Here is the input.
Amino acid sequence: MERFLRKLVKTTAKIYYNSVFKKKREKKYIPASGKLLDWEDLSAMIDASLDMWLTAGRFNDKFEKEFARYLGVKYALSTNSGSSANLLAISALTSHKLGERRLKKGDEVITVAAGFPTTVNPIIQNGLIPVFIDCEIGTYNIDSSKIEEAISENTKAIFIAHTLGNTFDLDKIKSICEKHNLWLIEDSCDALGAEYNSQKTGTVGHIGTYSFYPAHHITMGEGGAVVTNDQELYRIILSFRDWGRDCWCKPGKDDTCKKRFKMQLGNLPFGYDHKYTYSHIGYNLKITDWQAALGLSQLKKLPQFLQKRTKNAQLLTGKLSDLQDILILPTVHSNVQPSWFGYLISIKPTANFSKQQLVEYLEKNGIGTRQLFAGNILRQPLFVENDINLRIGNSSILNSKNLTEDDYKLLPNTDFIMNNTFWIGTFPALEEQDIDKISDAIHKFVKEN
Here is the structure.
């Protein structure tokens, strides 16, 4: 009976879906990013809703397993956003369980200023000092040639993103980390499915992070994941995600370790319930089974999503290649297979127009644009209005409130990105006629200016 009723609910929902969502609507505006959902996604969400389990359950267990399998890693943990994934990654490295390798307040973490705030924020939130390195123009990733000169005796980790799905120089950066005994966190929130030497991004460093926000390669609505091949790091990340508890039992499960009442930890009495023993100052950053069900459905479609993003990026390169005297188009290293989150374009200084003028023209003509997130995060109010200690390259410690134009000049390419760079969409819902419209609008603007 239950199976029949479930099928009846889903059949009715499919009629609703076909009536409301399957209609092709004329695009009056071409967004820079967006989700692509179908009936299978809705069906998965209905299944999870009918279970009425609410918190992480059978769908989450399966998602974590399938996501780890797709990436080729041992452990994957879901979380409620890519930003939370980044917070968990950095927080995990502060754990006392790591002994001498733990990050302590005042330790330094190498990163970049041209990116999303929640790559940098967890560094500051954990009392660590961000060390900013300039970026390359073209790939818009960290300039790996400038990393070693910025390393001090206090540098303990590198935490950087693969910019918009275009992979940074993993070979060189991993080699630097091994040479100097540094942790490497790969922020792959914008790079799910990208590959470096045929290895998925997020799986080369000690920890990888991902986002499943609607703009990303797959979506849960809100959601993210943290992955690692290290069992100790997995247990620590799990602890920080789940209230800081020492126990690793799944929700609704007890005594997985068979020692629930047979331990003595901290200054607690012997046998104190391990299920209520806490080893870290943690959070509650889990997802619901409803989100996991959607993630599972989306994961099945990821290969075709990536193919479409690649095709759209290739179309844009082909259609805009005749404008390379005034536009800088994205560049890719030979051993990289990007998973294009978006398509970055920079205006050369010799152009007769500014980025601002082109962006406003495109938006006015129904074409969505985005900045490379914070541009130069050191110029953002979050730094200007707060006392944050930092370094830029091999500089001494600086305070964010007192930065001068001479300090900003230490990141010339980052300022160039802030002033000259924007991106347009490649997401799977875009068709060739949308790419044509984008190209035509850019060509028309250039011709008029």
